[in-house]
Design a protein that fits this description.
It is built from six helices and no strands. It is globular, with a radius of gyration of 15 Å. About 25% of the residues are buried. The structure holds iron/sulfur cluster. Iron/sulfur cluster binds next to helix 3 and helix 4. The site of iron/sulfur cluster has 12 residues, from helix 3 and helix 4.
Length: about 120
């Protein structure tokens, strides 16, 4: 997958309004315990949208930096994990394996911890 994140500033901040996948949540996010064959078909359909989407790169960048789950910017969880941006709580063994290999090979990116909402900032 392309890892060139060089995008315009406008696209970086305003890309979502150009997304072509509105209303297609079930295509980009699978149900719990989705059968592998079903996931392959669903992600193939998702990819067909991403490949013609004008904001694929900023979408991918956003998903990687936020360690998202689901299909974003032409990447599934395994592909994002292999690039070093694993989802925060991967459940599939294939995603965990891709994440661990990325760290072993020096590509893993540790996400910033969320601030604890119960601790007042000083
Ligand atoms: S690249 Fe794919 S997931 Fe991202 S906005 Fe476009 S269609 Fe949606």
């Amino acid at each position: 997958m392309d890892t060139d994140f060089s995008i315009s500033e406008e696209a970086d901040t305003d890309w979502a309004k150009h997304a072509i996948c509105g209303g297609l949540t079930e295509v980009f996010f699978g149900p719990a315990a989705e059968r592998p064959e079903r996931r392959v078909e669903r992600e193939r359909l998702a990819m067909s949208h991403c490949m013609v989407c004008p904001v694929m790169l900023p979408c991918r960048r956003n998903a990687r930096l936020n360690h998202e789950h689901g299909f974003w910017g032409g990447e599934n969880d395994e592909e994002r994990a292999a690039a070093g941006y694993a989802p925060r709580s991967p459940s599939r063994r294939s995603v965990i394996a891709a994440r661990d290999l990325a760290f072993k090979e020096g590509r893993g990116v540790v996400y910033a911890e969320e601030p604890d909402p119960w601790v007042e900032a000083s």
